[in-house]
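This section describes the prediction task in plain terms. A model, or a person checking by hand, is given the sequence of a single protein chain and must write out its three-dimensional structure as a string of tokens. No templates, partner chains or ligands are provided. The sample shown here is typical of the held-out split.
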Amino acid sequence: MHFRHLGKSGLVVSELAYGNWITHGSQVEEAQAHACVKAALEEGITTFDTADVYAGTRAEEVLGRALQGERREGLEIFTKVYWPVGPGKNDVGLSRKHIMEGLHGSLRRLGTDYVDLYQAHRYDFQTPLEETMVAFADLVRQGKVLYLGVSEWTAEQIDAAAKLAKELRVPLVSNQPQYSMLWRIIEGKVVPTCEAWGMGQIVWSPLAQGVLTGKYQPGQPPPAGSRATDALGSRFMGRFLDNADLLGRVQQLKPVAAELKLSMAQLALAWVLQNPNVSSAIIGATRPEQVRDNVKAAGVKLSAEVMARIDAVLGPVVERDPSKTVSPPARPG
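The expected answer:
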């Protein structure tokens, strides 16, 4: 495994982080989830990403049990707050009440006294940003949160939060966006803004929900047991699976991967790690062997020629529009 600083902070994270969105507490049995976490640890992954909303809070519980007995100081545990975790009108958003209650719930489920990174899972248009940042700052000063981050925020939102973080003297160090060969919407505005503030990217879906593994063939049904056959996972894949040209172009990357003696997944992961603002790429798994295959992308350097070949193949189907940054739906408020 290779390691990088999270942005310009002093926190060092593994180039590949293990995430349990969709899988733990829902898609795979707990014993299998524990086996995947064990494989991640054995392969040198020290960074683990989750969120309170994943599997209705069960994902945090599974991860906490899977990491039980590990040396806490040797791990970086990340979680998030925003999405509803209960039926009440204050069980959602980035109000002071929900942030405080959310963090304490996460700590209890994860079985830890603190999290290394606490992230705002989306921007909350119905809570003053200052209220949100002061609540986060209080948790930092209490020692329950070491660093702060955001997820799927626009460049303008990140800039405003970073200014408040500087005034409050708390470490806002990261953004967690979707990013892959096919989904590059952060490159135009978000990355330059984060670089200016010393923030790094912890990217999710670097395999474009598995599309970049090459398993989805144009004009053919998804393979049995793949994410596209899962009710939750398939919700996020329509933009890719409904585009035959895109799927065909992904198939054209197989010779590139073969020449480099990489799997398609390793090529996709190595590609996102070529961006110097990317601190870590999150991988998920339903089987330990997937973890062991993916980690081989750490430390891989792709030449400028290879990067240009990838661009030439995918160019017309790459999404770059910064307005595609996910916005949260309306909520009671």
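For orientation: The mean pLDDT is 92.
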